[in-house]
Structure formats: C-alpha cells, structure tokens
Specification:
mainly alpha, elongated, 0% strand
Length: 167
C-alpha cells in the first residue's frame, strides 16, 4: 500500500512538472525582453554618450539579440542584420523562438528607425523601443505566471487521472 501511495505521489508530481515545463515559453520570452531592454539602455549610452558607431556599440552589448545583430552587420544595415537574425533564430528551437509577432514588430521598428541621422531622433527611437518592450515584457510576465499556475494544475490533475486509471 505504501508503495502505491509513493508511486502515485511521484506520478502526480511528474505530471505537474511536465505541465510547468509547457508554460516556460512565456517566461523565457519575458527574460529575453528584459535582457534586450537592458541591452538597449547600454546601447543608448554607447551610441549617444560615447559616440560609438552602431555596429561597434551593438557588438559590445550583453544582450544576445543585440550582440548577434551587431556581428551580422558586415556590409549591411541594422535592419537587414536583424532580419537575418530573426529568420535564423525565431524558428522552433532557436534562441528567439519565444518572441511574439508584437515583439518582432517592435524590434523591427527599432532597427528600422536607427537609419535616422540625428541624435535627438535616436534618443526618441530608443525611448519608444524601451517603453514598447517594457509593456510587452510586463504582459509576458503576467501571462507566464498565469500559465505556470494553469499548466501546473492541469498537469497535476492529469497525474491524478493517471493514478486513478491504474488503481
């Protein structure tokens, strides 16, 4: 009897953890957006205060997305490098696969706006991108927390169903 109870508890726990794993996409998205926002803050400092060229400033970034975009900027602009990175990394299994279409559009608008020449225009583009990504990150965190609760509960209930099915 004790072995059945132990196996039942383990089954329920495993199913709950599987449910939690399904919800990790939104949490990964929120972490990626937060990392990108931090990278944008540093990029803003490197470009506007230290007057580094865009590709050099991007390469100095601690954000994976920004750094890779900077590395891809050989002979092309930021928008084109972002498109190459987006096509390569947003496929299933890529480092950016958790990004939503809204995230991709906001980042595309940011990289597209970097073509403008003036410092004040760049400052406005940075501010708009950080604000937009902040809103998206907040929504991703909230949605991720809700999904973790939901999927963990559904996983545990599926585990209970499996245990009942075997008893």
């Amino acid at each position: 009897m004790g072995l059945k109870l132990a196996l039942s508890a383990i089954s329920i726990l495993c199913c709950a953890l599987i449910g939690r794993a399904f919800a990790n996409g939104n949490l990964r998205r929120a972490r990626l957006l937060a990392e990108t926002m931090d990278g944008l803050q540093m990029l803003k400092i490197h470009m506007l205060d230290r007057l580094l060229p865009l590709s050099a400033a991007l390469e100095k970034s601690q954000s994976y997305l920004l750094k890779q975009t900077g590395l891809l900027m050989t002979g092309c602009g930021a928008r084109e490098a972002w498109q190459v990175l987006r096509e390569r990394e947003t496929k299933r299994g890529g480092r950016l696969d958790s990004l939503s279409t809204d995230d991709i559009e906001a980042l595309g608008a940011f990289f597209d706006g970097l073509r403008s020449a003036g410092r004040s225009e760049h400052k406005a583009i940075f501010d708009a991108a950080i604000k937009s990504l902040g809103r998206l990150e907040s929504g991703a965190r909230k949605d991720g927390a809700e999904r973790v609760r939901l999927y963990t509960t559904l996983g545990a209930l599926a585990g209970v169903a499996v245990v009942i099915g075997f008893i």
